[in-house]
Specification:
294 residues, C8orf32 fold, Serine Threonine Protein Phosphatase 5, Tetratricopeptide repeat, 6 strands
């Protein structure tokens, strides 16, 4: 029996987290790996190898669009940046797994090739090379987040599994399963203590359950790990509005809006907080909320 690739293990994690993963998803991976083994020339230049993997996956009709679980993507052929997991898994089957790693950026994952002589990033969503400096600019990465190894570090295979647990947690959160979301994010954090999004979503899930001390502690960690991440400031502000701590709520919502002025919800909650302290600017926030919601 051939060794499981990372893609197989992502499916195993989705099953572990309680999602129904049809056996056909495993077969789809096996078929992809078999075809790729026949088509990809491992003696080629490294950039040509990765370009060939991308071309192969495009021929297999994978389309790039925001999506959640890998199992859903394998059935619909609609996939997001987790296409990188398929790149990595094909490389594993080709015997090149030690040369490739997954790398995190805010709301994004890509692969990095390092064979001792050549080191470069490859973005699966565009099938092209992208430098660290380009990612820093495109993704608004704070320098402290690089120094702390939150983003742009090459992940080990084990650390990479945190991405699967984090995705499961976000999907469960979206379905209203707060306990399930918390459990998945806890597993992601145990694997990768720098996984900032899991701190954020675990924190807000705890807050929605009324566990405010844990909520604010996790949200504060997310803020420290990524000072440019708007969502933990937004979630903190929402919880503080609920707790009637309006002045602190406004401070956090100000920061969320500064970092992401196109997100409508922080304006709504800031408007609520300002209304409660009789701030005449409240209506402007509600108007901005309505404008951005259109």
């Amino acid at each position: 029996m051939k060794r499981k690739t990372l893609a197989h293990e992502f499916l195993d994690i989705e099953r572990e987290c309680g999602f129904e993963v049809d056996q056909s998803c495993y077969k789809t991976i096996d078929d992809l790996l078999e075809k790729a083994s026949e088509r990809i020339n491992i003696e080629d230049d490294p950039r040509n190898i990765l370009s060939s993997i991308g071309g192969f996956l495009k021929e297999e009709d994978f389309r790039i669009k925001n999506n959640g679980l890998l199992s859903d993507s394998l059935q619909t052929k609609i996939i997001d940046c987790k296409l990188s997991v398929l790149y990595y898994s094909i490389a594993e089957r080709l015997g090149l797994g030690d040369k490739l790693s997954l790398v995190l950026a805010p709301k994004h994952v890509f692969v990095r090739w390092n064979d001792g002589e050549n080191t470069f990033n490859w973005d699966a969503t565009i099938n092209a090379e992208v430098s660290d400096e380009e990612y820093k600019s495109r993704c608004n990465i704070h320098e402290q987040s690089v120094i702390k190894d939150v983003y742009l570090r090459s992940l080990t295979r084990e650390l990479s599994k945190a991405i699967a647990y984090d995705t499961c947690g976000c999907v469960k959160y979206g379905k209203g399963d707060l306990d399930g979301a918390i459990a998945c994010h806890e597993k992601a954090i145990r694997l990768n203590p720098m996984h900032v999004r899991s701190y954020c979503y675990k924190g807000f899930s705890e807050g929605k359950k009324g566990n405010y001390e844990s909520a604010f502690a996790h949200l504060a960690i997310a803020m420290r790990l990524d000072p440019n991440y708007a969502r933990p400031y937004y979630y903190s502000g929402r919880l503080q509005v609920r707790l009637k701590d309006y002045q602190r709520a406004i401070v956090n919502l100000d920061k969320a809006i500064e970092l992401n002025p196109d997100h409508p919800s922080p304006y709504y909650y800031r408007g609520q907080a300002k209304t409660m302290i009789r701030d005449s600017e409240a209506m402007k926030d509600f108007e901005m909320y309505k404008k951005l919601r259109k």
